[in-house]
Design a protein that fits this description.
Length: about 100
Amino acid sequence: MDLKELKIRLKIPENDTSKDHYLEVLLEDAIDYVKTYCNQSFDNGFPSGVKQAITKLVKAYQEESNVASKSLSDMSKTFFEGGTLNEVHRLLKPYRRVRFI
């Protein structure tokens, strides 16, 4: 997964390069998390479910994670602890390899 695909998945115009360096760092962090969590390197590329999980992680990294509730006029957004990570883990479950000690 590269920056171009991430921007498509996040609905960021390709010609908007204002946050490219920031997104590259977040993408690298998310990929590292997924590889570690799944205990595999995905040498043949990332399946669609893994790409969804990476995108959700990057999006979560961008948001204010310590906000419980946010309101603006008639629009409201609520965050709950672990919600995004639970969704990421659900997406990654089929790709996770159990490590035996």
